[in-house]
Amino acid sequence: MHKIARTMYGGMQLNSKRKGKRGELELAKKLREYGYNCRRGQQYSGIEGKDVVGLPHIHIECKRVEKLNIYEAIRQATKDAKVTEKPAVFWRKNRENWLVIMRLEDWIELYREWESGLWLKERRYCDNAGETAK
């Protein structure tokens, strides 16, 4: 009985690793569709700590599971991230879209950068239209 249980557990663990690998490959492909040169980080003997590499300044923790402990996942991403990287968990369940989970302070920093870029874009539009930018 114990031998069968170990074999079954080992098989379940192997299937989980395969699903994780497929999720990392799928996410890398999706990010390439957005123009980022991403690939699976673990394909090189697991030396790199990121699941997916190629998204500058973001530490990607990829989760391709049905149930996720969000706080544990973001703790892992935070622990593995370099000081110069924002930790992010990319998560997808079966038949669902990818989600990105970040700490609020990191999201606010990214949002402020996006907002200031939008402001500059609008200002250039006004300047190019011959109007006075405020």
Structural description of this entry:
The chain has 134 residues and is an alpha+beta fold. The chain has 2 domains: 2-101, Trna Endonuclease, Chain: A, domain 1 (3-Layer(aba) Sandwich); 103-134. The protein has helices at 2-33, 70-80, 104-128, and strands at 39-40, 52-53, 58-63, 86-91, 99-101. The strands form 2 sheets. It has a 3-stranded mixed beta sheet. The N and C termini lie far apart (77 Å).
List keywords for this structure.
51% helix, alpha+beta, disordered N terminus, 134 residues, 14% strand, Trna Endonuclease, Chain: A, domain 1, two-stranded antiparallel ribbon, 3-stranded mixed beta sheet, 2 domains, 3 helices
- Per the CATH scheme, the topology name of the largest domain is Trna Endonuclease, Chain: A, domain 1
**Largest sheet geometry:** 3 strands, mixed
Overall form: elongated
Count of helical stretches: 3
What quaternary form is this? single chain
Ends distance: 77 Å
Q: How many beta-strand runs?
A: 5
Q: How many domains make up the coordinates?
A: 2
